[in-house]
Specification:
Layout: H1 3-11, E1 41-45, E2 55-58, E3 66-69, E4 71-72, E5 79-83, E6 91-94, E7 97-100, E8 102-107, E9 120-121, E10 128-133, E11 139-144, E12 153-157, E13 161-163, E14 167-174, E15 182-186, E16 192-193, E17 198-202, E18 206-212, E19 215-223, E20 227-235, E21 246-250, E22 258-261, E23 263-266, E24 269-274, E25 278-283, E26 296-299, E27 302-303, E28 310-311, E29 316-323
Parallel strand pairs: 1-10, 13-19, 20-29
Antiparallel strand pairs: 1-5, 2-3, 2-8, 4-5, 6-7, 8-9, 10-11, 12-14, 14-17, 15-16, 15-18, 18-19, 20-24, 21-22, 21-25, 23-24, 25-28, 26-27, 26-29
């Protein structure tokens, strides 16, 4: 399993639900202090990594499995930033223990083929993350504070992405000067003024323009077809598999991750439709923390080098699966 899956399986098990003006984390907050204020920025220092592309990948606190391109900061060499749309507490409670809030990481690609950091914690008084790369290519990250005055911000979340049925979009405006208005516009419709974070639902391919004073940002949400997965599954002795198969989907344009029970068509044939694009892993059970068995994935060319293939929206694929065991006697 790729490195990113080990990161995601622990950090992305619960995606927060979208509401107007506020978002809940995947665990209850235990501290009323704020580590990151809504409308402020997180900074990435690219001095040591020298990545050509820098993405902020976040799965909570306003983001939903989004790869957000980070913006170069004017007059600050190698410094990049991204806006955080909601307040983030310094700690959350998990299993009765207070742990630092983690809801994002940094990466230099959108398909996990490149480099990425581990899940990043937040810390009160720190807003800048500086990766340090050792001789073996391992990345550690140092936290510090960069003092840059707040600026007017216009934002929409999720970041530009595709969807299959409908998608909820929330628009924000921060740090507006007195008397300055903010608006959002969907395609060629008239701009709509808003003063609080505002959510609306899109059901067709749309461009959303958010304007706050002299700041304008544009986002594109593209409606796509489902992806269809067909599999032929056998045991190691080549007899047809007859148990459950779950397609675990993550990444792609998924708003979250999940185990999905595939339809058993009989004779070792199974199928499942993905709402959009996703990486997929095939398992026999839908819980990671017990002895889950994974299927080996092949196609007509043989065993695939990528055992977590990306299935794209509108695509129909057929995989051959081998279960690591024999039929029950």
């Amino acid at each position: 399993m790729k490195k990113i899956v080990s990161l995601l399986l622990t950090a992305l098990m619960a995606f927060s639900a979208m509401t107007v003006g506020a978002f809940s984390a995947s665990a209850a907050t235990v501290d009323d202090d704020i580590a990151i204020e809504a409308g402020s920025r997180i900074y990435f220092d690219n001095t040591n990594t020298k990545w050509e592309n820098i993405y902020f990948y976040a799965w909570s606190y306003g983001y939903y499995g989004d790869f957000v391109p980070m913006e170069a900061v004017a007059d600050h060499e190698n410094l990049y930033s991204v806006v955080v749309p909601v307040d983030v507490p310094p700690y959350v409670e998990k299993d009765g223990v207070n742990v630092p809030t983690e809801f994002f990481l940094f990466t230099n690609s959108t398909d996990w083929s490149g480099q990425q950091t581990a899940n990043m914690p937040v810390e009160v008084g720190k807003n800048t993350y500086t990766p340090v790369v050792d001789e073996e290519g391992n990345i550690t990250v140092e936290l510090s504070y960069t003092d840059i005055p707040a600026t007017t911000e216009a934002l929409a979340t999720p970041y530009s992405k595709s969807f299959t049925d409908t998608i909820d979009v929330t628009v924000y405006a921060f740090n507006l000067p007195e008397g300055v208005k903010s608006t959002y516009q969907i395609n060629d419709a008239a701009p709509v003024e808003f003063t609080e974070p505002t959510k609306f639902t899109l059901s067709a391919t749309s461009t959303v323009i958010v304007t706050a004073g002299n700041v304008t940002k544009s986002y594109t949400y593209t409606k796509v077809s489902d992806a269809v997965i067909n599999v032929i599954a056998v045991y190691e002795d080549n007899t047809p598999y007859d148990g459950n198969i779950y397609a675990y989907t993550f990444g792609g344009d998924r708003v979250g991750e999940s185990f999905n029970l595939m339809t058993n068509n009989g004779g070792g044939s199974y199928s499942y439709r993905i709402n959009g694009s996703a990486h997929v892993i095939f398992t026999d059970i839908n819980v990671w923390n017990i002895a889950t068995k994974k299927f080996t994935i092949s196609d007509i060319s043989g065993v695939l080098p990528d055992q977590e293939p990306l299935v794209s929206a509108g695509e129909e694929v057929t995989y051959f699966l081998t279960y690591p065991g024999s039929p029950a006697k």
